[in-house]
Amino acid sequence: MSIFLQENYKSLNSKGLHKSIDIKREEKYISSMKMKLSQISIILLIATAVFAGTFLEYFHGRSEGEDIRLEWKTREEVNLQHFKIERKTPQSAFAEITTVQPKGSNSSYSYLDQSTYKTSDMIFIYRLKIVDTNGQASYSNEVSVSHNVSGVKRTWGSIKAMFR
């Protein structure tokens, strides 16, 4: 290299080349830290889902005549003891209405709530309590179902319930 180029290189090096190298190192460090944080987040998300005992694909409900149908599907069930279906209205707290035993991974579940005609409420909110074999519990998302049963059906349902 010529003496002129060597002197100019030394001049550039002393003025800004070190700074640009340091900036590039910092950018690489920040990028690697972002990647590590995202990996940790994914691991925590997976650990939370496994801790709950299952991976839920979906949980939804709909009004079906006099009743309300709840449906959900699991991907993987790990150490799952059971599901508890809980229901509330906007004016009340959650109460357990039934327990459903697990079927195994990749299962579809359906439950028909046949007791909604007995109340005068129009909106019901459901959730799944997911209990694992260690007794630890977690909850699904809440599902609201708007339900309207005619007064005639409600009265007839109450009469039938008296003779059961």
Number of strands: 8
CATH fold category name of the largest domain: Immunoglobulin-like
- Overall pLDDT confidence: 75
CATH class of the largest domain: Mainly Beta
Classified in CATH, the superfamily of the largest domain is: Immunoglobulins
Give the domain tally: 2
The proportion of strand residues reads 35-45%
By secondary-structure content and strand pairing, the structural class works out as alpha+beta
Give the fraction of residues assigned to helices: 25-40%
How far from one another are the termini?
102 Å
CATH architecture term of the largest domain: Sandwich
Low-confidence stretches: 41-51
Order of helices and strands: HEEEEEEEEH
The helix count comes to 2
Describe the sheet with the most strands: 5 strands, antiparallel
Rg on CA atoms, Å:
30 Å
- What is the general shape? elongated
Oligomer: single chain
Give a short synopsis of this structure:
The chain is α+β, with helices and mostly antiparallel strands and 164 residues long. Helix content is 38%, strand content 37%.
How is this fold's topology laid out?
Layout: H1 3-52, E1 54-64, E2 67-77, E3 80-88, E4 95-100, E5 108-113, E6 123-132, E7 137-139, E8 143-146, H2 151-162
Antiparallel strand pairs: 1-2, 2-5, 3-4, 3-6, 6-7, 6-8
